[in-house]
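Email to the structure team, subject: Nucleotide exchange factor GrpE model.

Hi all, the expression group asked for a predicted structure before they design truncation constructs. Nothing fancy, just the C-alpha cells so they can compare against earlier work. One-line instruction: predict Nucleotide exchange factor GrpE, return C-alpha cells.
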Amino acid sequence: MNESLYKYHRQKLEQLMAAIGCKNLEELSQLSGLSSWQLQRVRHGLIAKLSSESLVKLANGLQLPVSDLLAHFQIPTIKTEDYSGELKILEQEYQNLQQKLDKQKDELAAEFQRQSIEAIESWLVQWPTAEAVARKNPDLAAVKILSLVKPIMQLLERWGVQPIDSVGDHVSYDPQIHQLIDGQAEIGTQVLVRYRGYRHGEKLLYRAKVSLIKVEMPETQPVETENVTA
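Reply from the structure team: attached below.
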C-alpha cells in the first residue's frame, strides 16, 4: 500500500479519536466493539471492507453519523449509496437495542430497590416508633445510635420512598393511607399515628398504623346531701 495513503488514513482515524478523547486503539475497540484487527484495517485504508454492521459500530464509537464517517475517509459516493438502505436499518436496530438496554437498566434498578425495601420492611415500620420513644427519653443508650441511621433514610429518600405521617401525630383518618390498629372510625376522625407508613413513588407500600384517640372524661365528685331532720 502507498505509504502516504496509509499515513493519511492513520492520521484521519487519530483525529477522529482525539475529537472524542480516545487515546488509543484499545480504547476505541472498547467503545466501538470492533477488534484491534478490524481497526488496523481502517488505519490501512480498508474501511470499505468493513461490514455494514461494523461501520455502524465504528461510527457510534466515534460519535459520528455513518455518512460523515465515510466522508472523512473519502469513500466514493456510490459506495455510500450502496450501504445507505442497510445502514439505516442497522442504525434503527442499534437505537432500538439501546432503548431496550436503557429500559432494562431502569427495570433492574427498580427491582433492586423493591427487593431492598422488602428486606428491611420490619425495620422500616418499627424504627420510627422506636426513634420517637428514644427521643422522648434522652437518657436511654439507644438515643446515641439515631444519627447512624440517617444515611439509610437519606438513601431511601433518593429512591423516592416517602413517609406517611410521623409517629405521635394527630391526623384525620383516611382508610386509603391509614390502618386502624383496633376499633372503628369514620373518615375524618382524629386518630393517633403509632407507626409510620410509606409510599414508593406512586405506589403505596405500607399504610400508617393509627389508633383512636382516647378522650378522658373529667371525674365528677359526688354531691353531698344534708340530712334534714324534723
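The chain has a mean pLDDT of 80. Residues 121-212 form a domain with the Nucleotide Exchange Factor Grpe; Chain A, domain 2 fold (CATH 2.30.22.10). Ping us if the truncation boundaries need rechecking.
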